[in-house]
């Protein structure tokens, strides 16, 4: 629960320190004194948006700090543990705003984004504003109230997860189908290109081999003439040749070696040269014997090279890379060929995920209808207590998941009411007057608040439009709620304020052109005086004092 709050230089507050207790705390004061200012300040600690106008004029910064006890708030303790911000059984939220509009947020002394403060704040306190009856007319707020009462958070999380998964897969399928025409055209082009290359049937290193063979055949005449000349020079020349000269020289060296051993290695070297020359001549002669000068083969190679060069230019690659291009196009074609299969698989996923969504939506709808019946009875009873004796309330839940699925499920939820005998149930906006709407809103807030896990509730002038005996009933309802939950209620009604377990007074002082708001707790005697002021206005008589004391005694 909220233990205390410290406010420095916020709006018209110079300095304020407040301690809060269990039960119901009524907050009263004169009109314009700033009764809601502590709630606005607390809202900053709960992650509300900061503004430079919030800083008291003439000051450099505003600072608000709120302390909470967490003994009975396991959800908040778990959140702090998960975010590594835990610091014992207490939690301190702090917010600093500069006059330039910059703000800093802290949890247990650790700087954090305001979004983290907001996430934690939802587990610490629940604020019901004075315009809640206007929000009550919005269908999205109606379904939120029903879900809060039913405790649907885990089911809503599951619904949202399944819905987002279904939407993602559906969009992916839609995009794939949209591309199908482009893919079909691309597939036709690839089939034509692969067909051409299949007809060519080029081997992995065939082009290099063809190029080599073509070069040899196209130059076979020159090769034959030059090769024969080499053979003649080496061994077949009639007048002289290299082999005969080497043989003669080697014989002379052998003769010299017999006379001087110094020539022996030289004779051996010439013998090796003679043998290599002979082998070279034999190799060249063998090549000449096998040399193919087939013109038909050369013509075939010319045509094949021409085809390869043409396809290379067509695909903007070098001839050597045409084989790899062929293989890549085959892979791309195979991938496109599986497009229809991919569409079928995605369609099956979409259908299954939609079925999962419908299943969760049906569970949500079934649970909503069950809790709606429970709320119908409780709110109708509360309307009777709040001077609408013939009132009737009903929550209509219609499952439209097949055609109107959303992250909240598929239900259309409508709050219907009848306030007069014989009047049919109709939407709130068409039936209830301003005062009736305020009472119905208050009844719903008090009833649903009993199911909210946050240990502290704030009602900021939610009793607008209520007076007389009805106000006394409202006070009793809030006090009853305060027996199990910390309740703070900003009110202008003495019947409501008198029901508080304790009461605080807000006063505004003006001195030398400077305005300051202060708030302080009232003792029993001061409470009587304040209630008498609320009852009698500017004139406080013995009778109003007695009536004020009667309110306290009755509470």
Automatic annotation (TrEMBL):
Domain (Rad50/SbcC-type AAA): residue spans on this chain: 5-214
UniProt keyword list: ATP-binding, DNA damage, DNA repair, Nucleotide-binding
One Pfam family recorded for the sequence: AAA_23
Keyword Membrane (UniProt): no
Function: May be involved in recombinational repair of damaged DNA.
Family as reported in the entry's similarity comment: Belongs to the RecN family.
Protein name: DNA repair protein RecN
UniProt source species: Salinivibrio sharmensis
Lineage: Bacteria, Pseudomonadati, Pseudomonadota, Gammaproteobacteria, Vibrionales
């Amino acid at each position: 629960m909220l233990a205390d709050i410290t406010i420095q230089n916020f709006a018209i507050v110079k300095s304020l320190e407040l301690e809060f207790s269990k039960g119901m705390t009524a907050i009263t004061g004169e009109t314009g004194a700033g009764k809601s200012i502590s709630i606005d300040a607390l809202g900053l600690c709960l992650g509300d948006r900061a503004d430079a106008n919030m800083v008291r004029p003439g000051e450099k910064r505003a600072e608000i700090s709120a302390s909470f006890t967490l003994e009975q708030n396991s959800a908040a303790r778990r959140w702090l543990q998960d975010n590594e911000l835990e610091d014992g059984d207490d939690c301190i939220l702090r917010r600093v705003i500069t006059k330039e509009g910059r703000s800093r947020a802290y949890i247990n002394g650790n700087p954090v984004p305001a979004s983290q403060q907001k996430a934690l704040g939802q587990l610490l306190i629940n604020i019901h504003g004075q315009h809640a009856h206007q929000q009550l007319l919005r269908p999205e707020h109606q379904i939120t109230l029903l879900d809060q009462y039913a405790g649907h958070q885990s089911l809503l999380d599951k619904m949202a997860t399944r819905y987002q998964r279904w939407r993602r897969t559906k969009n992916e399928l839609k995009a794939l189908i949209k591309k199908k025409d482009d893919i079909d055209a691309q597939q036709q082009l690839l089939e034509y290109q692969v067909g051409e290359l299949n007809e060519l049937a080029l081997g992995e290193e065939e082009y290099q081999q063809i190029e080599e063979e073509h070069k040899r055949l196209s130059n076979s005449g020159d090769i034959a003439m030059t090769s024969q000349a080499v053979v003649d020079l080496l061994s077949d020349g009639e007048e002289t040749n290299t082999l005969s000269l080497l043989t003669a020289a080697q014989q002379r060296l052998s003769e010299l070696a017999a006379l001087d051993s110094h020539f022996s290695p030289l004779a051996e070297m010439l013998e090796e040269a003679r043998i290599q020359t002979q082998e070279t001549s034999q190799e060249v002669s063998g090549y000449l014997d096998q040399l193919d000068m087939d013109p038909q083969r050369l013509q075939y190679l010319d045509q094949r090279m021409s085809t390869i060069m043409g396809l290379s230019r067509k695909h903007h690659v070098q001839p050597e890379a045409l084989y790899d291009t062929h293989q890549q196009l085959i892979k791309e074609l195979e991938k496109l060929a599986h497009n229809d299969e991919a569409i079928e698989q995605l369609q099956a996923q979409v259908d299954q995920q939609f079925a999962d969504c419908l299943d969760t939506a049906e569970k949500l709808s079934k649970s909503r209808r069950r809790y709606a019946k429970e709320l119908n009875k409780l709110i109708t009873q509360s309307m009777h207590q709040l001077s609408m004796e013939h009132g009737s309330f009903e929550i209509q839940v219609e499952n439209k998941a097949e055609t109107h699925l959303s992250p909240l499920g598929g239900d259309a939820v409508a709050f219907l009411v009848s306030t007069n005998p014989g009047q049919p149930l109709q939407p709130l906006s068409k039936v209830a007057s301003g005062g009736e709407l305020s009472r119905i809103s208050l009844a719903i807030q008090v009833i649903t608040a009993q199911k909210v896990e946050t240990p502290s509730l704030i009602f900021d002038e939610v009793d607008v439009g209520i007076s007389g005996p009805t106000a006394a009933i409202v006070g009793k309802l809030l006090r009853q709620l305060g027996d199990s939950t910390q309740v703070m209620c900003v009110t202008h009604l003495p019947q409501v304020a008198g029901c508080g377990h304790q009461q605080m007074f807000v006063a505004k002082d003006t001195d030398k052109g400077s305005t300051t708001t202060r708030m302080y707790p009232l003792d029993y005697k001061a409470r009587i005086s304040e209630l008498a002021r609320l009852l009698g206005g500017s004139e406080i008589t013995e009778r109003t004092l007695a009536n004020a004391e009667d309110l306290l005694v009755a509470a």
